[in-house]
């Protein structure tokens, strides 16, 4: 699953994005990630060194959570009890630092329930679903939308756990530099180990 693809040209990448961007499986999202890492100059905005470095770091963090994150018993039992079809849509982008933590954790929670369709949609690609799920007027990601079998929204979550969002806003009010805030947030994610997102989903789905 975590192989690194050797070579990609721009035509292959563009074709892949056009075919999958509206409705990516999690594996297709990982494949897209790998294609960017193999040929960043062919996919905007990853030709920019800063975006590419973010993405490379996010790839490492995602793989770490995919290997180490184990959902707790409460969320396992809740997810396992879902017998009606559900559609979990995650709006994200590979460059997003928050998504590198929460998206693989979400996938690990639901991957064993065949009643849950887990889908990735890119924020900056049509149909621009994020426009319907803004956060204080902004396109903050990741955003999770859980729909029932007739397409009605049951839960909307994101872009990060509430405790971390409060810390983020407090950091902005204090005038901390962006790099300082990122360091604090990374430390929070490492220490939390996915517990807060599970707690919030338990409350939302119970």
From TrEMBL:
SUPFAM superfamilies: Thioredoxin-like
Protein name: Thioredoxin
Matching Pfam families: Thioredoxin_9 (PF14595)
Superkingdom of the organism of origin: Bacteria
